[in-house]
Amino acid sequence: MKINKRLEAILDVLLLLALFWAVRYWYSRHFGLYEDDLTIIPDAFQRSFSSLIGYIFIYITHFYGHARPLSDSSIYFFSWVGWHIAGLWGPYLLGYLITAINIGLFYWLMRRTAGRPFALIAGLGYILYSADTTQAFLTHSLGVQPSVLLILLAMHAYLSNKRILAYVLAFVVLFSYELPFLLLVAAPLLKKKWDKALWKEMLWHTGILVVMLAAIYLFRTAIGEGRVSGLGLKDLVTTPFVHSLEGPFVSLGTFAYRPLQAIRGLNLEVGIAVLLAFGLFLWILSRLEVPTQVKLRDLWRAVRDPVTRHALPEEVRALGRFFVVGAVMLVMAYPLTFTVRAYALSGRDTRVHLAGVAGAAVLVAAVTFLFIYLTNGSRWRKVINVLIAMELALLAGYGFIIQRDYVLAWQYQREFWTELLPLIPDAGEGTVILVDPAALHDTRQIGANYWNLPRVLMQLYTYPEDMKALPVVHRLEKGWQSTLLAADGRIQVNAVTVYSVPDYYGEFDPQQVILIQAENGRLVRRESVTLNGKIVSLKPTSALAVPPLPHAFLYHLMIGQP
User: Fold this and answer.
1) pLDDT by residue (tens digit) across 435-450?
2) Rounded Cα–Cα distance for residues 545 and 351 (Å)
3) For the chain, the helix, strand and coil percentages under 3-state DSSP, each to the nearest 5
4) According to the model, what pLDDT value does residue 562 have?
């Protein structure tokens, strides 16, 4: 049965959105707060609407948040709205919705420039992209995905000859999360006609974007923004170059590596997901209307001979353009990644690959159609369909492994604090609680009880306003036994001894320190510890407990949930 193009597009997008929900949000009701979330989101939940708007106004007008205030402001606003809609699950629903809009915008961008079949396969590449594993992480879905949305809108505006609007949208991104900004470089290349005029346009277009970047750099330098003013000339030159070489290879390499991880992490649930996804993807590939054929020898000749190249079918020649478009977008995803290594494969640091999703998806679609064109009209087409479907299915399966880590990380946090609090009833003013990493459970793709531990305890209880130094929990670094004791006999908390927030570094009297380790699978408190061959007495458990404190907001999320 034939359906009109508009309905066809709607059905395609609905399919992509359903698949994205399955591979990233299926277990979102069991997700919690992680790492950066714990700094902003509990505060956002507790504000009144007037307080929220007032805070966001001050945040933006004072250029807080590394002079890109729109990112944190988005997190505050969408967290608050989501919380009032559906509790802790609400922000995840809004995070999904923002990314869903991006999926729709990307699909339509590909459809208007490459046609429906290419757009559908590119859309699958987009939703299954797993170099970045932080799509559901609230800090990113609420604070970073809006920047991707603006850049995709800018690309649509550019192709619709609304260039001033495109540049305005792009400029706004520089006050949000700038990572996807340079994707706009590829906008002129999405035009079907490539001629000398295009290259002139490309030069002017790139120049405008560079000027915008330079203006923001000078602005951030002028106001003393630390991340920018701390960059030396060498970093400004070498980091974008190195990351633009490393990042694309890592990003594309995950299309081979994640399926292997899915196989290693295979269980009944992942296996069922892979089988169901395989059947769906095989059905999609078998129904693609792609009549174009090309022989490998003709393609090889066309690479060497421009005359032969013009004799190729238009769809095949268009693939060459999209290989270039995908490569440019993928390379442009990395020049602004100054703070994170471009070869990150696990955890929150994989945000370095966030902007690479569009370019990688275009390249995935281009490679897919190259194989389809080469095998059309032969029995090998079915083999290619099976191989591509299996690749995509394993990527879908890996999405459930990512979700498993998110569920476990929230569970581990709640278990840790539930077990820890009875051990530290005397944690009062100036107390430092150090936790042996061997006593903590870790997950690969999101941090549980990680660097942001210091910001949790102070949100579990309401401490007296006159308390000058709140009790703080730190995660110790590996090898802490040989570095923890300072020469003067004090306990040093710094970048060598703890993996924690620098705001709470210092040296402390051992009588202020509580050490938590594991014994027979349970947390235990030590009254003494051997450091550098010396037995050091710590805060005794017989110390008077502090008066019972009122439970703060985070207590009811971290401890109170079933």
Assistant:
1) 999 999 999 999 999 9
2) 42
3) 65, 5, 30
4) 46
For residues 73 and 47, what is the distance between their CA atoms, to the nearest angstrom?
13
Confirm whether 416 is domain-assigned.
no
DSSP 3-state assignment of 524?
A: strand
pLDDT at 1 over 50: no
| Backbone region of residue 479 per phi and psi (left: phi > 0; alpha: psi in -120 to 50; beta: other values) | left
Whether residue 222 is contained in a domain is answered as yes
Same domain, 110 and 194: yes
Last residue of a domain, one of 409, 441, 475: 409
What range defines the domain where residue 464 resides?
A: 424-558
Residue 185 shares a structural domain with residue 100: yes
Within-domain flag for 448? yes
- Band (pLDDT 50/70/90 cuts) for residue 316 is confident
Tally of CA atoms within 13 A in the half-sphere of 522 that contains its CB = 7
User: Token pair 């492994």 is at which residue?
Assistant: 401
Do both 376 and 431 map to the same domain?
no
Are residues 93 and 201 located together in one domain of the fold?
Answer: yes
State how far Cα 490 lies from the chain centre: 39
Is there a single domain that holds both residue 326 and residue 460? no
Rounded mean pLDDT, 89-112 = 98
- Distance, in Å, from the CA atom of 250 to the CA atom of 241, rounded to the nearest integer, reads 15
The verdict on 156 and 210 lying in the same domain is yes
Domain count, the chain: 2
pTM: 0.94
Task: Give the pLDDT band of residue 146 (cuts 50, 70, 90).
Answer: very high
The answer on 431 and 363 residing in a single domain is no
183-212 residue pLDDT tens:
999 999 999 888 889 999 999 999 999 999
Mean pLDDT (whole number) for 334-363 = 94
Q: Do 185 and 295 fall within a single domain?
A: yes
Backbone angle region of 193, left / alpha / beta, with phi > 0 → left and psi within -120 to 50 → alpha: beta
Q: Which position has the token pair 């290619």?
A: 384
Nearest to 469 by CA among 507, 430, 431: 430
Q: What was the pLDDT predicted at 229?
A: 60
Separation between Cα atoms, residue 26 and residue 399, nearest integer Å: 10
| Burial tier of 260 (Cβ tally within 10 Å: 0-12, 13-18, 19+) | exposed
Q: CA-CA distance, 171 to 41, in Å (whole number)?
A: 26
| Final residue of a structural domain among 409, 440, 464 | 409
Kindly state the average pLDDT of the residues 257-279: 96
Predicted pLDDT at 168: 98
Residue of 383, 370, 285 whose CA lies nearest to 326: 370
Query: Which tens digits make up the pLDDT trace of 24-55?
Result: 999 999 999 999 999 999 999 999 999 999 99
In a domain, 312, yes or no: yes
- Taking the C-alpha atoms of residue 240 and residue 333, their distance in angstroms, rounded to an integer, is 10
